[in-house]
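Figure 2 data, in text form.
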Amino acid sequence: MAKELELKYGCNPNQKPSRIFMTEGELPIEVLNGKPGYINFLDALNSWQLVKELKEATGLPAAASFKHVSPAGAAVGLPLTDVLRKIYFTGDQPLSALACAYARARGADRMSSYGDFIALSDICDADTANLIHKEVSDGIIAPGYTAEALEILKSKRKGTYNIIQIDPSYVPAAIEHKQVYGITFEQGRNDLKIDAGLLEHMVTKNKDLPEAAKRDLILSLITLKYTQSNSVCYAKDGQVIGVGAGQQSRIHCTRLAGNKADVWYLRQHKKVLELPFREKIRRADRDNTIDVYISDDYMDVLADGMWEQFFTRKPEPLTREEKRAWLDTLTGVSLGSDAFFPFGDNIERAHKSGVAYIAQPGGSIRDDNVIETCDRYGIAMAFTGIRLFHH
């Protein structure tokens, strides 16, 4: 391993020179293929921390799909249902637990995951590599690769796919630094451990937290720890289903993440599953078309005749009434927030997307209003007492 790596440029092509380096010792990473750039490494190192902690917290293989230093999705390796296999386009191929984790992470928000950077908690196997090979992705970081998986991944992007191997035993220094405008910032690394112990302070009338909800709340909180703040995360069945990141207002985070969770669930509607796509349509075009079909703009697309590019026949619209009726069947969703909810409007919006369990720091002067709103809908909420800002 090297002490430093020169990069083509920084965040933008005009930002030269660029490199990553260690002030002491060697880099804990090795580039096995490709030439990762500045943003690639930012995504790789943030996403690796997420999956490493998620594996430690749950004991399950974990995967993350990152874009611009925030997760588009993250998940643990639970088996896929037939419906999830269909909406994640995995086909009938065998799927290891790690492959299931990546399929779930990628499937949370397929539009945002286009061109993602992938992190895996475990050695990448052939099942996972075969899934990745079909997707548009910039690169991957993992603690290792089987020989077969490495050959599959090296064949992506005409042999230029970015493949990074990280030493899983690496522990960074307790103090971290960054520079902004020539000024150096210093702080203690955020090594806060997130586990079920943070969920013991239940403040609502409903204090029932099933084990699956605890797992999903831990997933959401660990995801938020590596998401640009402000941020809110919806999770269900061991996977993130909606992330609202980098918003200045908490309610905008909740709405953004909730809208993504709604799209994830609407993709499972019978009408969406039976859309008559033309053969050999590109995966990205199919994903974009599904989002347009689900959106309120679809009637305009029908009127313009654009459906002929993608479908063999004109599909029936998915009406607002049908969408609302389907979304009303979404239940058991967990929601994490990186800072307190200042108003009950966040709970009102979360309820519309099936949220039944919430973990947030607490500490707002309007906590009573937030708790009262949860009680109105029977939502169980824990105050964790910890903030998870990430910048």
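Caption note: The chain is about 35% helix and 20% strand.
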